[in-house]
């Protein structure tokens, strides 16, 4: 009776890192969010290959990398800070946890501020052309995700600072961090689409 | 200091005792009173709410159809104006496809999944409640505009440019767009819950090759939803922005593309068609064999066919767009894919036929519904196969032939199995048996009414009658066919009425049902009818696909399922988490108590949608702030749920 044997033994109780239901739920939340961005980028490429007036795709020519490239690096750095925090709590270091999450949230905020200047410098508006609509909607979708992520990281920082988590109980951290890493990775896809593919002549 | 012992324990193994069941009941039971009812996170409560709400939408959508069937019964009728007709057929399609067909199956699956899987609840009970509340809010939101006289009026697939501001200036399409986004959130969170439950909450021994086919059907449907729903939600959001913020996604006059709408809609739309039939096919795969007195023939083939259908279902969306002037190479690819998809469907059909052929059929009402489903599915499948061919589709597209096809598919594969499932699981839901004699009247009325109503549509389509016309001249020669269709649809409606009557009468006066009235093989029938709030006093251990038929299937005595002895899990509201493939015990999960937060969250999101509908950013901001507050309150780490460094309540220190 092999089955009866498997019932015996110790089992963890409650939300334990990757065994928590919330962790699994976040994996599939990321899948559905990733699909959303896939459809957004599909819309971009679909409209890019339709006939349009010269110089309107991208509107105003190749987008400037002056702000976008450093901002991409800032966002990746914020992911690294969060990862550093995650490794910290796995070793029981609560200070490193709170610090890493706080840095991650702050870098996310910096990204948003720079994105604001990037938007303000654009010579077109939401309703100028299909390209301009795509640009603001796709980057706007991403910014909305960053806003959610920054709020999430701030809450996690607060909870960490208050000592809610220790080296066994930190499921919230891994779940929030998974979302944040996704938000950063998907930015790379958005960045490549809007800032690099025009260099290859797409839409010209 | 805390030690590792605070976060682990060896759960005790035992048998149900009155003391145990009393304790579990007090832990799991929904609190009395209206507030308690609003806060319930019990999957059985939520499942029944889903079923009742979706069925109410079926009735409403049916009444809409009957009204315009009167208008179409003869040429040159003047019961409805063209504008009223447009709203009615759009509301009918939207209601049936989005507010009935999907949610009714979510209802059955929500109720049945934990019982079939030997679990005490779904993985994420609060998310389950949220899913229902958003569904209800979205349904009311979508109907609010119709009741005020400006309902959606561009057809349920809402093509631009007809749905664009230039041609459709009222709030009709805006309400449709925002309501659909809201409903998409409901479907998505529900889908995540099903997937996580499948991966993590099956009872010990229930490896993935032992789960009932209903589980496979619902799982594949919801895995598809995860990937497909964002497409339609995005399409509707972009349309709302085109209409209200001046963007140019679908605006062909400014470089946008009307075809982009069709792609985004059908990349969602076709997988959705499978999402609203595969769980119903699963119900038949589990229910039919019970009345054939033998296990399903070809379990593995049917499970794989279910998954294969869904995967292929993502590669056929362009067959809705054959007449739009796409390149031949694209048409050929999607035509081939649409024809290949009949192969896994046929596998399932032959498995059901073989089960009947080699079994000893018992002709009960659920059996009749399940068997008729096979016939209707085949007819709908053949007409689908025909329109999968490009030249045939060019001839038949946008005619009543397509209307006949889609109703054979959706009513045949959704409504008939659902009616059968109501008769089959009603004793479990209510503890009462349904009236069998009335059931037969019910079945034959629905079956004859349906075929009388919808079969002639094939012919009117072949005669060239286009869909979505509000009337037609008498010179076309379509009158008699349409009159027969109208008579048939009223007969079908009467059949549905008989079903409702039988349900209400049986709830009140039906004889008491035992735990397993059909002598069925799966775990839900081990629980009392209706099941206790905690489902299983001890967590069962299964050793086969048919835990209750092991003796007659000659499973050796040493290796049978254990229903009466198992993990007790009574240190608070607890469920067992198991490993994904083999279902080995993996973790003791602390389950949340009843809460009103999901309701508040659904209402807050509805405030956001309302604000967007009014294009009033203050309302949006208030709704957004409320939404954020609810989510934060929901996710706040709780010691009770074992989410913080403090030991979970109910755990003995260093025990």
Quaternary state of the chains: heterodimer
Inertia-based shape of chain A: elongated
CATH homologous superfamily label of chain A:
Cytochrome c oxidase, subunit III, four-helix bundle
What form of chain B results from the Cα inertia axes?
globular
Beta fraction of the residues of chain B?
under 5%
The Rg value of chain A, from CA coordinates, equals 21 Å
Helix content of chain B: 55-70%
- CA radius of gyration of chain B is 25 Å
The parts of chain A where pLDDT drops under 50 for at least 5 residues are 1-5
Treating each run of at least 4 consecutive H or I residues as one helix, how many helices of chain A?
6
Describe the structure.
The complex is a heterodimer of chains A (204) and B (655). In chain A, 70% of the residues lie in helices and 1% in strands. Chain A has helices spanning 2-7, 21-48, 68-90, 94-120, 130-161, 171-196, and one strand at residues 11-12. In chain A, helix 4 packs antiparallel against helix 5 (130-161). Mean pLDDT of chain A is 93; it is low at 1-5. With 655 residues, chain B is mainly alpha-helical. The two termini of chain B are 15 Å apart. Chains A and B meet through helix 1, strand 1, helix 2 and helix 5 of A and strand 1, helix 6, helix 7, helix 8 and strand 4 of B.
Summarize the structure in short:
The complex is a heterodimer of chains A (204) and B (655). By secondary structure, chain A is mostly helical.
Index terms:
heterodimer; A: 204 residues; mainly alpha; Four Helix Bundle (Hemerythrin (Met), subunit A); 6 helices; 70% helix; B: 655 residues; Cytochrome C Oxidase, Chain A; 3-stranded antiparallel beta sheet; 19 helices; 6 strands
Show the helix and strand layout.
The complex is a heterodimer of chains A (204) and B (655).
Chain A: H1 2-7, E1 11-12, H2 21-48, H3 68-90, H4 94-120, H5 130-161, H6 171-196
Helix pairs in contact in A: 2-5, 2-6, 3-4, 3-6, 4-5, 5-6
Chain B: E1 8-9, E2 13-14, H1 18-28, H2 33-39, H3 43-72, H4 82-117, H5 125-147, H6 172-200, H7 213-244, H8 258-275, H9 278-292, H10 299-313, H11 328-340, H12 342-358, H13 365-387, H14 390-396, H15 400-430, H16 436-462, H17 479-509, E3 539-541, E4 562-567, E5 574-578, E6 585-590, H18 597-614, H19 617-635
Antiparallel strand pairs in B: 2-4, 3-4, 5-6
Helix pairs in contact in B: 3-4, 3-5, 3-17, 4-5, 4-6, 4-15, 5-6, 5-18, 6-7, 6-18, 7-8, 7-9, 7-10, 9-12, 9-13, 9-15, 10-12, 12-13, 13-15, 13-16, 15-16, 16-17, 18-19
């Amino acid at each position: 009776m092999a089955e009866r044997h498997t019932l015996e033994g110790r089992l963890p109780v409650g939300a334990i890192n990757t065994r928590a239901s919330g962790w699994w739920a976040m994996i599939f939340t990321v899948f559905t969010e990733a699909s959303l961005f896939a459809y957004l980028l599909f819309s971009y490429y679909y409209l890019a290959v339709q006939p349009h007036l010269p110089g309107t795709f991208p509107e105003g020519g190749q987008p400037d990398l002056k702000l976008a490239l450093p901002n991409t690096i800032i966002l990746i750095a914020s992911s690294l800070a969060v990862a550093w925090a995650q490794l910290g709590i796995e070793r029981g270091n609560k200070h490193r946890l709170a610090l890493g999450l706080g840095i991650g949230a702050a870098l996310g905020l910096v990204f948003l501020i720079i994105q604001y200047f990037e938007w303000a410098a654009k010579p077109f508006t939401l309703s100028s052309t299909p390209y301009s609509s795509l640009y603001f909607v796709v980057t706007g979708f991403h910014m909305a995700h960053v806003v959610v992520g920054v709020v999430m990281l701030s809450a996690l920082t607060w909870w960490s600072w208050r000592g809610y988590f220790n080296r066994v109980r930190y499921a919230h951290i891994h779940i929030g961090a998974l979302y944040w890493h996704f938000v950063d990775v998907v930015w790379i896809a958005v960045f490549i689409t809007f800032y690099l593919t025009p260099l290859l002549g797409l839409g010209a | 200091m805390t030690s590792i012992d605070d976060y682990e324990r060896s759960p005790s193994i035992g048998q149900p005792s009155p003391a145990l069941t009393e304790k579990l009941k007090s832990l799991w039971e929904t609190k009395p009173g209206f507030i308690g009812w609003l806060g319930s996170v019990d999957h059985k409560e939520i499942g029944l709410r889903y079923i009742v709400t979706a069925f109410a939408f079926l009735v409403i959508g049916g009444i809409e159809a009957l009204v315009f069937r009167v208008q179409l019964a003869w040429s040159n009728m003047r019961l409805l104006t063209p504008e009223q007709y447009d709203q009615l057929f759009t509301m009918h399609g939207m209601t049936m496809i989005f507010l009935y067909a999907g949610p009714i199956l979510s209802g059955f699956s929500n109720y049945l999944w934990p019982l079939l899987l030997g679990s005490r609840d779904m993985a994420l009970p609060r998310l389950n409640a949220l899913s229902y509340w958003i569904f209800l809010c979205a349904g009311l939101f979508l109907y609010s505009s119709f009741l005020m006289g400006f309902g959606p009026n561009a057809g349920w697939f809402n093509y631009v440019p007809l749905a664009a501001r230039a041609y459709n200036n009222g709030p009709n399409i805006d309400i449709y767009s925002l309501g659909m986004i809201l409903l998409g959130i409901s479907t998505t969170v529900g889908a995540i819950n099903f997937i996580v439950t499948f991966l993590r909450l099956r009872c010990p021994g229930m490896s993935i090759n032992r789960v009932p086919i209903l589980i496979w059907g619902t799982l594949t449907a919801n895995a598809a939803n995860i990937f497909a729903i964002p497409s339609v939600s995005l399409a509707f959001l972009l349309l709302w922005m085109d209409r209200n913020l001046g963007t140019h996604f679908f605006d062909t006059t400014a470089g946008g593309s009307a075809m982009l709408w069709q792609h985004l809609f059908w990349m969602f739309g076709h997988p959705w068609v499978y999402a609203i039939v595969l769980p119903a096919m699963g119900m038949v795969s589990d229910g039919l064999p019970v009345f054939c007195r033998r296990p399903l023939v070809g379990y593995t083939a049917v499970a794989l066919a279910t998954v294969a259908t869904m995967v292929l279902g993502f590669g056929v969306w362009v067959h809705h767009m054959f007449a739009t002037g796409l390149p031949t190479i694209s048409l050929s690819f999607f035509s081939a894919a649409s024809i290949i998809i009949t192969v896994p469907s046929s596998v399932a059909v032959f498995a059901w036929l073989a089960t009947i052929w080699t079994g000893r059929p018992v002709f009960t009402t659920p059996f009749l519904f399940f068997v008729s489903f096979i016939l209707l599915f085949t007819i709908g499948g053949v007409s689908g196969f025909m329109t999968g061919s490009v030249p045939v589709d060019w001839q038949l597209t946008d005619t009543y032939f397509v209307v006949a096809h889609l109703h054979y598919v959706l009513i045949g594969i959704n409504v008939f199995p659902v009616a059968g499932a109501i008769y089959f699981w009603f004793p479990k839901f209510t503890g009462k048996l349904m009236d069998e004699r009335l059931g037969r009247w019910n079945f034959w009325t629905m079956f004859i009414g349906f075929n009388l109503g919808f079969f002639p549509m094939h012919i009117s389509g072949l005669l060239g009658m286009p869909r979505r016309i509000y009337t037609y001249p008498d010179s076309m020669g379509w009158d008699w066919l349409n009159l027969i269709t109208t008579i048939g649809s009223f007969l079908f409606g009467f059949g549905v009425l008989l079903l409702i009557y039988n349900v209400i009468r049986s709830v009140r006066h039906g004889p008491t049902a035992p735990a397993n009235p059909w002598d069925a093989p799966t775990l839900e029938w081990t629980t009392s009818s209706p099941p206790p709030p905690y489902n299983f006093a001890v967590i069962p251990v299964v050793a086969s696909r048919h835990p209750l038929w092991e003796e007659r299937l000659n499973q050796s005595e040493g290796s049978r399922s254990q229903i009466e002895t198992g993990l007790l899990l009574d240190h608070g509201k607890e469920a067992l988490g198991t490993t994904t493939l083999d279902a080995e015990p993996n973790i003791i999960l602390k389950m949340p108590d009843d809460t009103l937060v999901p309701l508040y969250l659904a209402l807050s999101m509805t405030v956001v949608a309302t604000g967007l509908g009014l294009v009033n950013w203050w309302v949006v901001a208030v709704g957004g702030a409320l939404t954020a507050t609810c989510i934060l309150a929901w996710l706040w780490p709780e010691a009770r749920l074992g989410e913080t460094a403090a030991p979970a309540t109910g755990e003995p220190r260093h025990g």
